[in-house]
Each structure stands twice: as structure tokens, then as C-alpha cells.
Amino acid sequence: MLKDDNRKVMLDKFMKEHNYEESSLLEILHKAQDIYGFLGKNIFTYVANALQLPPSHVVGVATFYSFFKLKAPGEHVVTGCLGTACYVKAVDDIMTAIEQDFDVKRGGSTADSKLSLFITRCIGACAMAPNIIVDDEVIGKATKEIVLERVRLALEGGHRS
Ligand code: FES
Known about the structure:
Layout: H1 6-17, H2 25-36, H3 41-50, H4 55-64, E1 76-81, H5 84-88, H6 91-102, E2 115-120, E3 132-134, E4 137-139, H7 144-157
Parallel strand pairs: 1-2
Antiparallel strand pairs: 1-3, 3-4
FE2/S2 (inorganic) cluster binds near residues 83, 84, 86 and 125.
């Protein structure tokens, strides 16, 4: 199940604009990846339900195309918004701090698979820039200190809720 947040609102709006048509599946998956940074099981299920398609079909289409990021995310997922509003508010500095502190690269996971780091291009919350999402919690007006602490707590806390 996708969390009820701005990202889901954006995806819903996009699917509605495309009349939930199967012929728009590729565009919808592109949009979902833009919004969430990667495509995971819950996104496939959600899109499949909305378009009334078997989830296996949606997964099959996504795995066929190399431009989709299907890498199994780590136990915890951090996504930084690198859209314009967040970028000018120095989100890149926070991303770099995460990379350095946790030894992880954008688009990848830590060696122990506990943390994955992704990017998105706008989650529709520009007024709260810079935005970083830690395990589905959108942190607006994020600072390096707040985000690093939140990621540390997530890693110490174990599994994602
Ligand atoms: S650019 Fe980050 S929320 Fe819009």
C-alpha cells in the first residue's frame, strides 16, 4: 500500500489524466519513478490495481526496459528531491552528507543493504523545500542535522514500519 502523501496525490493525478489506460502504462511507470525515485513492489501493485491489470504484467513491462530502476531497495530508503526548488535550497549538500556518513551512493545501497539512496525530481511540496523522504516520512525544510539524525535512528531502529 502506498502511503497517503503528496507523492501519491501526484501519481493519482497523472493516472487520472491518462484515464487509467493500459496504453499509458509506460508513461505512468516513468512518472512513478520520477516521483518515488525507484519502482518497488508496492508501486507496482498500486499501479496494477488502478489500471486493472495483473501485477505480473506491470512488473514484466518494467523489467523489460532498462531505464527503470528496479534495484531492490535496502531495508531503509532515503529519497532526496533534486527538483529546482529543493536544489536551490541546497538539498545537494544534504545528499552529499548522507553519502559520506553512510557510505552510500545515489541510486545505490550500502554494502549491508540496510540503506538505499534515491533521487526524485519534485514531489509537489516545493514550498517546504528542501525535501528529503526517509522511509515514507517526508521531511520538509530539511537540514543536514535533522536528516542525518533521522537516518541514524531508522538504521538503529531496525525494520521499516
Ligand atoms: S522541487 Fe522538491 S518538492 Fe518540488
